[in-house]
Amino acid sequence: MELRQLAYFVAVCEELSFSRAANRCYISQSAISHQIARLERDLGIPLFERSTRSVVPTDATTRLLPLAKQMLSLESAIRAAVRASGPRIRLAANMSFATRSLSAIAGAREAHPGAEIEFVIKPFRQRIQAVADGDCDLALIRGSVDQPGLAVEKLWVEDLVIATSTAHPLAGRDNVTLSELSAYPLLLPPESDQVLLHNVVRAAFADLPTGPAYGPPIPLDHTATMELINRPDAWTILYADSPTEGIATLRLSGNPLRVPVSAVLRADARRSPILDTLLAALHSS
After folding, report:
1. For the purposes of burial, counting CB atoms within 10 Å of the CB of 245, is it exposed (0-12), middle (13-18) or buried (19 or more)?
2. Contact (CB, 8 A) for 142 and 258
3. Three-state SS across the chain?
């Protein structure tokens, strides 16, 4: 039995889907299925009842899950306990925050030449847990989180990006309105995976006579931009504007769609000069 197998096991339990768990853990679905099968062989008991439509935990899974979470929490605590006592900060984020984070890290290192600042890539839930366990000093998230023992500090507000295929009827326009966009299908990931994005859309359309015309949800193993290529009549909302062949970005008339970006820290964390400098750099970046 390996700790990574327990991490995959917890992901499948929480997602109730091998494909979503694989996406969350940044591995292929076949790889996570293989590791779960190895864990089942090691334990000598099935952990999930699998079908083409669902993944159902067994009774053994219900007993194993809290122990697996405890083991993973202990792993994070061990890593935190043996970390070097020198000036070191671990920042958890995802790649969409890379540009601003690395700029802020460079500024903090210039102010504290002896500091070591790590940029750690983690999915949303793992970012939060890493801060709660003390494995990371802060995490960047969109939106907020309400969890005992954690504090949230708002950093900046981010404009979302309207994107279409270059073959879309509205592509090439200087400005578009939500009313104009509502005539075309909106492609988004399932709400269970992007609650914040769906809430932003609902709020934006709240005062309009008609809401958006939702197209089919974007599968977790697909990208929004590729879906636009396959659906040139559709549009989507992106967190960041990354130039992509065949994709046009549109400026929204009126109030842009915005989301807050926040830093999550332990409420009882001792604020070091390096951490304060990094947060100040993130505020101004």
Report:
1. exposed
2. no
3. CCHHHHHHHHHHHHHCCHHHHHHHHCCCHHHHHHHHHHHHHHHCCCCEEECCCCEEECHHHHHHHHHHHHHHHHHHHHHHHHCCCCCEEEEEECHHHHHHHHHHHHHHHHHCCCCEEEEEECCHHHHHHHHHHCCCCEEEEECCCCCCCEEEEEEEEEECEEEEECCCCCCCCCEECHHHHCCCEECCCCCCCCHHHHHHHHHHHCCCCCCCEECCCCCCCCCHHHHHHHCCCCEEEECCCCCCCCEEEEEECCCCCEEEEEEEEECCCCCCHHHHHHHHHHHHC
Please answer whether residues 64 and 81 qualify as being in contact, where contact means their C-beta atoms are separated by less than 8 angstroms.
Answer: no
List C-alpha distances in Å: 14 to 8, 22, 125, 161.
10, 12, 11, 30
- pLDDT tens, residue by residue, 59-89: 999 999 999 988 888 887 777 666 655 568 9
Closest CA to 227 of 131, 163, 136, 154: 163
For the chain, residues with pLDDT lower than 50 are none
User: pLDDT tens for residues 11-64?
Assistant: 999 888 898 888 888 888 888 999 999 999 999 999 999 877 788 999 999 999
pLDDT given for residue 255 in this prediction? 75
Report the amino acid identity of residue 75: E
Cβ-in-10-Å burial (0-12, 13-18, 19+) of 38 comes to middle
